[in-house]
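Troubleshooting entry. Yesterday's outputs looked truncated, so today I'm pasting the complete records for two proteins to confirm everything comes through intact. If either block looks cut off, that's the bug. Protein one:
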Amino acid sequence: MPEIVALIDYGAGNLRSVENALRAAGGSPTVTADPALVARADRIVLPGVGAFAACMGGLIAIPGMIEALNEAVHERATPFLGVCVGMQLLADAGHEYGTTAGLGWIGGDVRLLERDSAFKIPHMGWNDVVPTRDHPLIEPGEAYYLHSYAFEVGDPADCLATTDHGGPLIGAVGRDNIVGSQFHPEKSQGYGLAFLARFLSWKP
């Protein structure tokens, strides 16, 4: 029986581009806002672009979705990938237009980038992915970034990769069956498709 790769539809602007990239990487994602399907999925992908509060609000607005995510990811250890803001939502809180509670799966906060004026905000374009420890999904290379806020982890062990934009930034986070990429695999051409292909075969 084919795997259910649940791509969560909660109004994220990069939903269709992530769907197309997953297909190009060899997957057959099911775009869904159905918590029952998410709860029994074999893999889960959470896209996301825009403001932390708006994205978190979009998830909360789907009755039962947060509970389904917690059941799948924490109780069933379903492999999970968060992309860009979908990764940032893993944090304890986002500090954009006030403070908004996140999913709290990986300790830390999402805060506005503060860089020397020589380094433009948002951090936009191709930049390095530098692994900080061995992980089956993370390879060194270059990927596409677009963000003004960055994840600051509470435990350095949860950082899987960094990049540099006037100072170090987190490029990917993870713990157990959870991975999040600050870079956009759907915009990262060969590097991004290879990353998604590894996720689709990952057995944490």
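Protein two, checking that the full record survives here as well:
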Amino acid sequence: MIARIALIDYGSGNLRSAEKALARAAVEQKTGHVISVTSDPAAVLSAERIVLPGVGAFADCMRGLSSIPGMVDALSEAVLRRGVPFLGIWVGMQLLASVGREFGDHSGLGWIPGEVVRLKPSDPALKIPHMGWNELLVVRPHALFDGVASGTHAYFVHSYAMKTADRSDVLATSDYGGSFVAAVGRGNIAGTQFHPEKSQAMGLRLLGNFLTWQP
């Protein structure tokens, strides 16, 4: 039986680079996964793993996801009830929060309680959006970070970051004029504020870890 990864297309994702990086990770790890870019809830329900990318404003991304009939229900069934491994990337991670505070307050999926707030660097010389390579501090052991040491650099492009209600949901942080959440995890759910598909060797290692992760 072919193991499929549903890479969700809802009009708000950097799909091509994510698809290529996941496919390369599958080859390098010899997992045999097939990457399916899809907006079909039935394909999400039958997937062995699910990846939710996201580029743009929180409200626009949530609106795009919700506009696909049955998609949020399919995600809830697969991830929350069946325990399918899930990875959110950038805004795909932010949508896990209870609320996003970008251009007003907007409800998220609420899978990892918390809020998404604007970065406020202590140094006024630091520009927003934060763009470029930053060190990761791995604060909690997790399968996603097997072989990824603290101090490894990842690639970020963002103006907002998640503040979790429960500190134990934080897997890694980074610093840009103050600490912010770089990765979260709870059960079979994980997310990265950085772009693993643009983070070269570290990103491929993390994606490979996701493909073999057994929550």
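Both blocks look complete. Sanity check on protein two: The helical segments are 15-29, 41-46, 58-66, 71-81, 91-94, 200-212.
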